[in-house]
Amino acid sequence: MALLRAREAVMAKFRPTLRDHGLTEQQWRVLRALNASKVPLRAGELSEQTFISMPSLSRLLKTLEARDAIQRHALHEDLRAAQLSISRGGKALVAIIGPLSEASYAEIAALIGDQELSELERLLTHVVTRLNCGR
Question: Which stretches are transmembrane (predicted)?
C-alpha cells in the first residue's frame, strides 16, 4: 500500500499537465518510449518497456494512431505484425510536454532531496531484483 500511495503522490504532479494535453499516463509512457527509441518497436517490445499489458496497449495504440501521434508500419516478413514509431504530431507533443514533465521531476527532487531519491532508487532496484530472481 505504501508503494501505491507513493506512486499516486508522484503521479499527482504529472496528471494535470497530461490532462491539459488530452493524454493519459499510459499514452504518455508510450510516446516517451517511442520517442526515445532509435528504431520502430513491435507492440510486444513496447509493452515490455512501458509495463502496459498487451490488451490495454492495443486500445492505447488505436487512440494514439487516430490522433496522429504514432505511425504503424507493416513488417515485410510478417504482414500480420507491425512496428510502431512516433509521428511528427507525437514528437510535437513530446516537445511541449517533455519540459513540463522535467519541471515536475525537478520539483519532486527539490522536495525529497537528491540523496533520498538516490537511496529510494537503490532500494526499489533491490526490491525488483530480489522479487524477479526466480524469473
Answer: none
CA triple 14-113-49, angle to 5 deg: 45
Q: How does pLDDT run across 111-127, given as a tens digit for each residue? A: 999 999 999 999 999 99
Helices of type H across the chain: 2-11, 15-20, 25-36, 43-50, 54-66, 88-112, 114-131
Total-model pTM: 0.87
In this prediction, residue 12 has a pLDDT band, given cuts at 50, 70 and 90, of very high
What domains can be seen in the chain, in order of their start residue? 2-131 (1.10.10.10)
